[in-house]
Design brief:
Layout (H helix, E strand, L loop, with lengths): L3 H10 L8 H7 L2 H5 L4 H4 L4 H7 L5
């Protein structure tokens, strides 16, 4: 959990940070939804190099 001081530091560096509230996101994250962003969701095969370099994130 980030302290209030650390949160201020983070927001000072980038006010448009994608993750506004880590604790809320960690509490409500659904890994089943996240899996759909990776090719292994449809292929059943894991290729971490492809996922790390070539797989375009969904925005």
């Amino acid at each position: 959990m980030a302290t209030k001081e650390r949160q201020k530091d983070i927001m000072f560096l980038d006010e448009t940070a994608n993750l506004k509230n880590y604790d809320e996101t960690a509490r409500t994250a659904n890994w089943k939804d996240a899996e759909k962003n990776f090719s292994w969701f449809t292929t059943g095969k894991v290729n971490m190099v492809y996922e790390a370099i070539y797989n375009e994130p969904i925005r």
